[in-house]
Amino acid sequence: MADSVRRLLGKPGAVDLRPYTKLLESIEAREPDLRELSDAELTEKATDLGNADLPYDRHDLVELCAVGREAARRTLDERPYDVQLLGVMALLDGHIAEMATGEGKTLSGALAAAGFALRGQRAHVLSVNDYLARRDAEWMAPLYDMLGVAVSWIGEESTREERRAAYSADVTYASVSELGFDVLRDRMVTDLDERVVPAPDIAIIDEADSVLVDEARVPLVLAGAAETAGADAEMAELVRRLTPGVDYEIDPEGRNVQLTDAGIDKCEQELGGVDLYDEDDTSVLPRVNLALHAHALLQRDVHYVVRDGEVRLINESRGRIALLQRWPDGLQAAVEAKEKVDVSDTGEVLDSLTVQSLVLRYPTRCGMTGTAMAVAEQLREFYELEVAVIPPNKPCIREDEGTRLYATREEKEDALAEEIAEVHATGRPVLVGTQDVAESELLAKRLTGDGLECVVLNAKNDADEAAVIAEAGTYGAITVSTQMAGRGTDIRLGGSDMADRDRVVEQGGLYVMGYGRYPSSRLDDQLRGRAGRQGDPGASVYFVSVEDDLVANNAPETRGYEAQGDGAITDDSWLRMVDHAQRVSEGKLLEVHRNTWRYNKLIDVQRSVVLEHREAVLADDLGDRQLRVDCPAHHAELVEEAGAEETARAARLITLYHLDRGWTDHNAYLAELREGIHLRFLGRRDPLDEFNADAVPAFKGFLDEARARAAETFAETEVDENGTIDVAEVGVKRPTMTWTYMVHDHPFSSALETVVGRFRGKLAGAGETA
Ligand SMILES: Nc1ncnc2c1ncn2[C@@H]1O[C@H](COP(=O)(O)OP(=O)(O)OP(=O)(O)O)[C@@H](O)[C@H]1O
């Protein structure tokens, strides 16, 4: 057994790898025999493994890994390392395999997917973007082919037909969002044959922590016919004239903004003497608040960029443009008004699905990532997943230096720029990770000003991004990138062709510098992990200042340090404070996740009631049977005139229409309820209890109501001269499923909390005068 395997067997809290490591010798022992086989014989060996059900017993697991290894060697010219096979076995057992950057997760994932597929389970490999889905499917295709497993992929451009074909393969690669949108569209079909996504079996999630934790809260939305909400230019102008600190105050975390009394007076005056808190006209205050949020809390080039006349959001966890995302409701339009760009179309939300619910549909889920242990608790709590820590193939020799702390941002930047210049002078490649796009642009400008040429990575498309990041290990390269840009791409020392590898190795390999620590240690580790792949030399260091948001917002104390002449703070207790601040920030993120989860849980329960009913209408003619009971005479008449089949078709369409219509309306109600629920803080009641207290009765009778409406509509139907029943005549028009987008996580606790603060003030005032 390799030393590296022995080293990490007993990581506390992680899956015990011993049952897997015990098999490694047997797997290796199969190799000489398998090498003798022809390609066709090897395929046959793989196919033979399909003669039993999951899970694999020890004998078959050995065979699968041995055959998979030999097939990978022949087709990809890569013989899977022992540790990669440990990853395969962990995945087959439904775990998250933690494997460091560059350890070859793609291959482990593919062998596991093939293992599931050979046993008749359809595997969906979920990537973070379309580019990776296609790249990985095409890259692994020869391997799948030799194992007798059909593989396919889906991208944004794929047509419905292509999607259906792709999903019918044994293994399908897709981005989380494309899969989610397909599931949403499938929920609206009126005929079983229109569906594209088969029943879920296995989800293998790449970059699992990013998808399951960072993106879990993001709802994917399917919206109908477009309607344009007007731009609120008036309010955008109004808030532009307000003075921060005088007319409004921002809370220390930058998540909330509140008008002061002076601000209220100013707004009321400028709006021609309105009363913002007029109980008879509550329409103005939310408009002011939305505009104020957009103005004061959302910063251009930090939260969004303006490109080609459009506001494009920046995905915080990936630090790149999130093409498909938008803010909830009016906030998007408010930012567009602020930036004076055209207000984009929105549409009626037909249904939505969080990434978390999407993944939980799969009876078996597993995945791989470089950083899972730090969120092991969340993976267990939300997904019932355990983490298997797979040791690296070659020990990691990257040198991770301690954090360098400075008093001010300026001093931090000076120190970083100086370090970059010094390191660059030796030819050693440098990769700098920034917190946001604005930071990376500012830093790049500064470096260029200092005569240092650098490549800035942000806002490009995934493929370009991958190509650029692949060169970050080139001799003399300086690459400035936001956190996740180019994730999933290998950084080889000496450039993608490794031409200059020796020279770069001599200088110590890739040097990763963080321009500030991230809101979670996991994100720090991801950036560090870009250096030191497969036993390469490398180093990492983080530059932090007391003024950084992470420290300023989360540290208990930010004064009283002793700084040296260049602003450096070397006192240990201050350095520990940075770790502390990061832990506080992690705790807050977890709380947000938990909260969203609780809200969504109830919505999911209600949704599943509707979906189950819908299924019975689609597959089992439930609508027809109900309408036969509810409108017996009319039903009989229609059968007489148009035939039973046509009547059943009309009954199905009408029933589905009212179910879907009802769900869309209920969804809108829940969204509104959830926003408004924060007002209940007034009564110091738990908002979640309040939400449930309203949402549960609101759903009561949902199915009966839909059924009653269907009966009303059905009663009006007529048979036309062609002998068909035109349901459009009675108002049954399917919404166009025009829009798909992801709602960006609400950047603030609630837009309405601002209102709450004000109401509280008013009530207190009222109490005093009473
Ligand atoms: N067994 C192997 N033998 C030789 N090369 C391998 C082997 N497995 C993987 N590789 C190579 O290692 C590189 C990294 O593989 P891969 O991109 O799958 O890593 P990863 O773990 O997904 O990294 P990242 O975290 O950056 O996504 C690729 O160039 C791949 O071809």
TrEMBL record:
It comes from the Bacteria. Residues 2-571 form the SecA family profile domain. This is Protein translocase subunit SecA. Keywords: ATP-binding, Cell membrane, Cytoplasm, Membrane, Nucleotide-binding, Protein transport, Translocase, Translocation, Transport. It is an enzyme of class 7 (translocase). It is found in: Cell membrane; Cytoplasm; Membrane. Belongs to the SecA family. Part of the Sec protein translocase complex. Interacts with the SecYEG preprotein conducting channel. Has a central role in coupling the hydrolysis of ATP to the transfer of proteins into and across the cell membrane, serving as an ATP-driven molecular motor driving the stepwise translocation of polypeptide chains across the membrane. It is a peripheral membrane protein. InterPro entries: Helicase_ATP-bd, Helicase_C-like, P-loop_NTPase, SecA, SecA_Actinobact-type, SecA_CS, SecA_DEAD, SecA_motor_DEAD. Its main location: membrane.
